[in-house]
Amino acid sequence: MLESNRPVVLTGDRPTGPLHLGHYVGSLKNRVSLQETHRQFVLIADSQALTDNASDPDKVRRNIVEVALDYLAVGLDPVQTTICLQSALPALPELTMLYLNFVTVARLERNPTIKAEIQLRGFGRDIPAGFLCYPVAQAADITAFKATVVPVGEDQAPMIEQTNEIVRRVNRQSGAQVLPEATALIPDAGRLPGVDGKAKMSKSLGNAISLSASPDQLRDAVRRMYTDPDHLKASDPGKTEGNVVFAYLDALAPDPVEVEDLKTRYRAGGLGDMVVKRRLEEILQALLAPIRERRRQLERDVGHILATIRQGTDIANEITMRTLAEVKSGLGVFSL
Ligand code: TRP
Q: What is the pLDDT of residue 189?
């Protein structure tokens, strides 16, 4: 398992809340198929979560098991996918320290993701240094596993770019290809909007459907979904662009022909919101029921979940420590 010729793929999630449908469409679904063809690592990024939650470590700690439960419930197989915990991998902060010498503060401040997040969090000039530097820590995550494929949402693409800049500088300084460059794998399904029609589904925006939602919560969320505000009567022609119900159907309906047919009828007039919503609800209930059931079974044995994370972390420690040794040697760090 440790050695394999498969391309290495790494992704991670900050454990700040339960995972939701946006995660499912944007990355979890992908990961379930990638584990068949790639050597896959999934990092529970609790250290990164602390970069903007340092005053609420409880939240981060609690959600580690929750996120692991979500992984296993959607079908990640711990034999094929190594699930590991960031804060238990000491090679990562060591690599981060070394990489920081190859990045300027100005470059970090220009990182579009960081820029947007600084705005969103209202840091102003008081940016925690740990937060500003998290792209470097993420470069450490990616390179420590020598991942060449990183499936992420569009908003994370600048992180991969910044990672590759660091990789090139470290390799140049080392005079050898110590680290491989990585490619972002951005799903063509695009990003799932929030139920309120906002561009992004996010727990903090309160517009998410969590993977563990109950049947009632699911029904409620679909009922509340933003459609076409001008589509007042079923007989009116309706817009399908910017219509959350159709965005979800596009991303999740098993039969694209059916979706096209619904769209045509909706645009022409004569198809009511309730009918389309009822169909979407059916699809979502069918998708989430087995995930919820599996999660319920797994929840009964938290000890087993912790053991799974521990085993994955042991494997990850071996690999990341080896990379750290190579980088230290490449960069000419004294070896005792
Ligand atoms: N920054 C990612 C996010 O917020 C999480 C993450 C941490 C990650 N380390 C990673 C993603 C390494 C890909 C690879 O979603």
A: 66
Q: What are the pLDDT digits (tens) for 75-123?
A: 999 999 999 999 999 999 999 999 999 999 999 999 999 999 999 889 8
Q: Is 141 in the pocket of ligand 1 (CB under 6 A)?
A: yes
**Ranges of residues in the chain whose predicted pLDDT is under 70:** 1-3, 189-190
Q: Which of 13, 38, 120, 148 to mutate to test the pocket of ligand 1 (most atoms within 8 A of CB)?
A: 13
Q: Check pocket membership of 9 for ligand 1, CB cut-off 6 A.
A: no
Which residue has a Cα nearest atom 10 of ligand 1? 12
The residue whose CA has the least distance to atom 6 of ligand 1 is: 12
- Return the pLDDT at 125: 87
Cβ neighbourhood burial of 63 (10 Å; 0-12, 13-18, 19+): buried
Cα–Cα dist 131/143, whole Å: 19
User: In this structure, which residue's CA is closest to atom 14 in ligand 1?
Assistant: 11
β 81-85/149-151 pair status: unpaired
Q: Is 39 in the pocket of ligand 1 (CB under 6 A)?
A: no
Please give the torsion angle defined by the CA atoms of residues 70, 72, 73 and 76, in that order, rounded to the nearest 10 degrees: 110
Q: Which residue has the tokens 């240094």?
A: 129
Asked whether 324 lines ligand 1 (CB < 6 A), one says no
Q: Which residues pair with 21 in a beta bridge?
A: none
Q: CA–CA separation, 212 vs 67, rounded Å?
A: 11
Is the full-model pTM beyond 0.90? yes
Instruction: Indicate which residue's Cα is closest to atom 7 of ligand 1.
Output: 12
